């Protein structure tokens, strides 16, 4: 399949001009596709690619050079013949009812693919067969067909083609007109002096005017049309503007006729809440007009797929003065019954129930934590709990004062999520403050939950700078090193050691400096003094030190050879990073490595370190030989 799609790429200009390969592919798929659904689908996929006019070819130009070649097909008679064949085959497939939507999908992609369809002359030439087909085949009563026609007319207009304006008028049914209103977006508005708020007010007024005479039956039709519109989006851009538009319509109704608003909302839910609207504003308005009991009765009195989400939103929207024991019991019942995907991410709204139960947050977290063991969709709630911007954040230890173990378990479990909101380590530090041994628990948990049975520095993105700024940083890091090394001591190689995370932070360009770096260096020098004879341990420690900048590494190498002069021990140390990268020639990188090794020579000017010095000299010679070889490779490659 990919070979067929890429057949434009990599051909010589001579073969490309005749399109022999493309003709062969189209003919063969057309022949095999007669009466064969699978080959017809394959043809549609190939046609989708072949109808582009701009292509990209990626390949190796030289040994170490990647070439990206972009080219646009010129409008030639040979290309016109190929495209005519493709279009006619598509039109034939459209006659099969089970492929109509797929054919229209290819046409819509052709119309809305500005990076792939770029040659205006080719587009205008295509219109000789495409426009008559669309005019004949499409039905103006279908919203999808109206969309296809308008997409195509927009493409023609963009490429200076002849646009029959009467087709725009003809293919503009009531659903299409409604969609234009619902899809109105400030981003697409062409008057820069209009603010977002002003535009949204204008959109609300347009929608209110459009629906001001609607009856309950009209809203039934409205929802049917909205479902057609929403299905056509299929997750594409515009979903938010569309849903916001629907909410504007319903809120305008609420202001105009509260009784009809209640009936309409009831109608919408009874039909399955198919649009999956954000319900907060709708429910808040319902509570205002029907009261707490009336709103809950409407929301809880029928079955619909998103019922749990709407009921949780009811509690989020519920005014604090309406929160009582009955509502709290109802909320606990929801958490016990719901799946994680239906629960709200933020728990701030629980604070309104604190006066009724000071352990409300801890109880809800305990329920969610227990569910997370079998339902990973609960993790988003546990993760959001540690977001520094939520209202609960300053109250953590007040809310969990009798449940520190629960908070610790929740924190560790939240770490299983793809992202962790405690990115600056604020909660982590508070946990250490309350329990210094938590750092060892944390390290043990990291290894216990590692998918491959071990972890490296890529598996932890947290910035641990806060540890080094604490007065007890040495005691904490002693626990870290002991815990990490207990898990790592049996490994023979350390490519990206996990311990590195506590000294060099990946992902945020953080390089220790000032007091932080000074404290790290003092700590490491002390560890070398105390453990210099433990060669296995020192080997692991230097797998971290090796990633420091060269000028920073010298002091640790010097301290080690001062404490342990055995050549066998020195040979086990990693003195350079295990991996390196470069751009262009490798020679400058090798020259920097020579500078590093040469700078070590003055440290070895004693008889006891003669072997060390000889080893370093050989290392320099080897690197110089490698430079000469690389220079030859560079010359040949050029």
Give the arrangement of secondary structure elements.
Blueprint: H1 2-5, H2 13-18, H3 20-33, H4 37-50, E1 54-62, E2 65-72, H5 77-94, H6 100-111, H7 120-137, H8 143-158, H9 165-170, H10 174-182, H11 196-211, H12 216-233, H13 239-256, H14 258-270, H15 280-300, H16 307-317, H17 325-337, H18 360-372, H19 379-384, H20 396-399, H21 404-414, H22 426-434, H23 438-448, H24 465-468, H25 473-488, H26 514-531, H27 535-545, H28 550-563, H29 567-571, H30 587-600, H31 610-637
Antiparallel strand pairs: 1-2
Helix pairs in contact: 3-4, 3-5, 4-5, 4-6, 5-6, 5-7, 6-8, 7-8, 10-12, 11-13, 12-14, 13-14, 13-15, 14-15, 15-16, 18-21, 23-25, 26-28, 30-31
Spatial strand sequence of the major β-sheet: 1-2
Radius of gyration: 34 Å
Mean pLDDT: 88
Number of strands: 2
Question: Approximately how much helix is present in the residues?
Answer: 55-70%
Largest sheet: 2 strands, antiparallel
Percent strand equals under 5%
Number of helices: 31
SSE class = mainly alpha
Give the terminus-to-terminus CA distance: 35 Å
Choose one word for the global shape: flat
């Amino acid at each position: 399949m990919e070979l067929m799609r890429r057949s434009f790429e990599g051909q010589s200009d001579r073969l490309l001009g005749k399109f022999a390969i493309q003709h062969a592919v189209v003919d063969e798929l057309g022949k095999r596709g007669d009466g064969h659904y699978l080959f017809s689908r394959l043809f549609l996929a190939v046609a989708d690619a072949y109808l582009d006019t701009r292509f990209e070819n990626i390949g190796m130009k030289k040994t170490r050079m990647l070439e990206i070649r972009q080219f646009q097909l010129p409008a030639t008679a040979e290309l016109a013949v190929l495209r005519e064949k493709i279009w006619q085959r598509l039109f034939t497939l459209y006659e099969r009812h089970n492929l109509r939507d797929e054919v229209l999908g290819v046409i819509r992609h052709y119309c809305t693919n500005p990076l792939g369809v770029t040659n205006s002359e080719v587009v205008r030439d295509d219109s000789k067969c495409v426009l008559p087909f669309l005019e004949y085949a499409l039905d103006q009563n279908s919203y999808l067909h109206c969309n296809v026609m308008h997409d195509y007319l927009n493409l023609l207009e963009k490429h200076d083609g002849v646009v029959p304006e009467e087709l725009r008028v003809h293919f503009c049914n009531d659903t299409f007109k409604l969609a234009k209103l619902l899809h109105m977006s400030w981003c697409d508005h062409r008057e820069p002096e209009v603010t977002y708020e002003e535009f949204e007010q204008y959109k609300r007024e347009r929608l209110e005017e459009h629906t001001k005479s609607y009856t309950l039956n009209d809203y039934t039709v409205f929802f049917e049309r909205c479902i057609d519109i929403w299905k056509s989006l299929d997750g594409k851009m515009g979903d938010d503007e569309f849903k916001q538009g629907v909410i504007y319509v319903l809120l305008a109704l609420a202001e105009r006729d509260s009784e009809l608003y209640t009936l309409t909302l009831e109608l919408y839910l009874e039909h399955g809440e198919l649009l999956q609207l954000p319900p907060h504003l709708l429910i808040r308005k319902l509570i205002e007009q029907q009261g707490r009991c009336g709103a809950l009765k409407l929301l809880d009195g029928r079955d619909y797929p998103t019922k749990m989400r709407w009921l949780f939103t009811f509690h989020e929207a519920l005014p604090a003065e309406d929160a009582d024991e009955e509502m709290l019991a109802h909320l606990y019942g929801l958490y016990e019954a719901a799946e994680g995907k239906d629960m709200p991410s933020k728990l701030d709204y629980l604070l309104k129930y604190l006066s009724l139960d000071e352990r409300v947050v801890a109880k809800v977290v305990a329920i969610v934590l227990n569910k997370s063991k079998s339902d990973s969709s609960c993790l988003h709630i546990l993760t959001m709990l540690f977001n520094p911007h939520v209202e609960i954040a300053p109250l953590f230890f007040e809310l969990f004062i009798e449940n520190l173990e629960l908070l610790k378990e929740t924190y560790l479990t939240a770490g299983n999520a793809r992202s962790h909101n405690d990115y600056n380590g604020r909660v982590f530090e508070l946990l250490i403050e309350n329990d210094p041994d938590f750092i060892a628990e944390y390290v043990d948990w990291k290894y216990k939950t590692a998918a491959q049975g071990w972890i490296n520095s890529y598996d932890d993105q947290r910035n641990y700078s806060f540890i080094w700024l604490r007065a007890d940083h040495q005691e904490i890091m002693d626990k870290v090193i002991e815990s990490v090394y207990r898990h790592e001591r049996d490994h023979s190689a350390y490519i990206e050691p996990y311990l590195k995370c506590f000294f060099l932070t990946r992902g945020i360009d953080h390089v220790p400096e000032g007091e932080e770096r000074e404290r790290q260096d003092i700590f490491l020098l002390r560890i070398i003094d105390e453990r210099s004879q433990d060669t296995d341990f020192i080997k692991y420690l230097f797998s971290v030190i090796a990633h420091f900048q060269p000028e920073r590494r010298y002091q640790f190498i010097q301290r080690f050879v001062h404490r342990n002069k055995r050549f066998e021990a020195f040979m086990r140390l990693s003195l350079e990073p295990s991996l390196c990268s470069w751009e262009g020639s490798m020679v400058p990188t090798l020259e920097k490595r020579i500078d590093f090794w040469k700078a070590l020579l003055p440290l070895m000017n004693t008889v006891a370190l003669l072997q060390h010095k000889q080893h370093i000299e050989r290392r320099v010679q080897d690197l110089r030989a490698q430079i000469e070889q690389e220079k030859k490779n560079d010359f040949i490659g050029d």
